[in-house]
Amino acid sequence: MTTNPKTAIILGTGLGQLASEITDSYEFPYSEIPNFPVSTVEGHAGKLIFGKLGGKDIMAMEGRFHFYEGYNMKEVTFPERVMYELGIETLFVSNASGGMNPLFKIGDLMVITDHINFFPEHPLHGKNFPTGPRFPDMHEAYDKRLIALANDIAKEFNITLQHGVYLGVQGPTFETPAEYRMYHLMGADAVGMSTVPEVIVARHCGIKVFGMSIITDLGGFDTPVEVSHEEVQKAANGAQPKMTTIMREMIRRA
């Protein structure tokens, strides 16, 4: 079977069910791909999938790599370099994140409009790859045309979307109440442990990006709330059908 995908998707925590929407698929375990790290986090299957979604050829990562797993940033973002070499032009990223915006509730979908990089290591640190300039512009890390398309689809399917700034941290601890409040004061609406390095490298490669977070827990408010990875997965799974609808329709129409 031949495939020529121009679109890639990264399926994050609890969002691997979207893979079941992919038809005519064939899979490669990360362990069988040269130089690919292996996912070590529960809920991340660790497979590269090629197939069709929304009638389009796509490439999907079922499970991503995180800085907190002990990988360096070159390893975390190696898949985006592979995407560039395969001719990928658009990347859809998804994640589970903690909400700090008082208007958010658990299970909300948040379209990422911008991000704040709070990782201790930058993914472009070191010798510059020839895929982009030494000092890449990041004024539109998340494609405005794709955001507008998502808004139109959400309205058509009566799905409520939040919009906000995603702040990326190294983890693996969930945030303290004070950290949640600090990040919100810095201008962030949601916080998570992924996505930002992937987006930076994708944009360095000239790949357009659309990002969406599922708000799986809330923090920084008057009453501290305990959170566990199991609760995050449960909330992500509950919101997955809405995200699947939007992602599938975006890929079909983009």
UniProtKB/TrEMBL annotation:
Annotated EC: 2.4.2.1
Sorted UniProt keywords: Glycosyltransferase, Phosphoprotein, Transferase
Pathway(s) the chain acts in: Purine metabolism; purine nucleoside salvage
The UniProt record lists the keyword Transferase: yes
Domain Nucleoside phosphorylase span(s) in chain numbering: 7-252
Pfam families, A to Z: PNP_UDP_1
Gene Ontology biological process terms from the UniProt entry: nucleoside metabolic process
GO CC term (a single one): cytoplasm
Family: Belongs to the PNP/MTAP phosphorylase family.
NCBIfam families, per the entry: PNPH (TIGR01700), PNPH-PUNA-XAPA (TIGR01697), PRK08202.1 (NF006054)
The protein, known as: Purine nucleoside phosphorylase 1
Species name: Segatella oulorum F0390
